Amino acid sequence: MVMAKVEDLLKLNMKTFANIPLRLHTVDDIKEAVKKDNKQRFSPLEES
User: Fold this and answer.
1) Which of 37, 35, 34, 45 lies closest to 1 in space, CA to CA?
2) Other CB atoms within 10 A of residue 23 CB
3) Mean pLDDT of successive 10-residue segments in the chain (48 residues)?
4) How do the domains of the chain map onto residue ranges?
């Protein structure tokens, strides 16, 4: 299992499969994508 902070991922100089820069997304965008992932490849882990 690999864990990463969403905030750190959004700072990367990378683009999504749809060619959209990661930095244009929000944490809420990522949470929604995780919910909609049919294969359930990702799961959120909330920090306390």
Assistant:
1) 45
2) 13
3) 89 94 93 91 81
4) 6-36
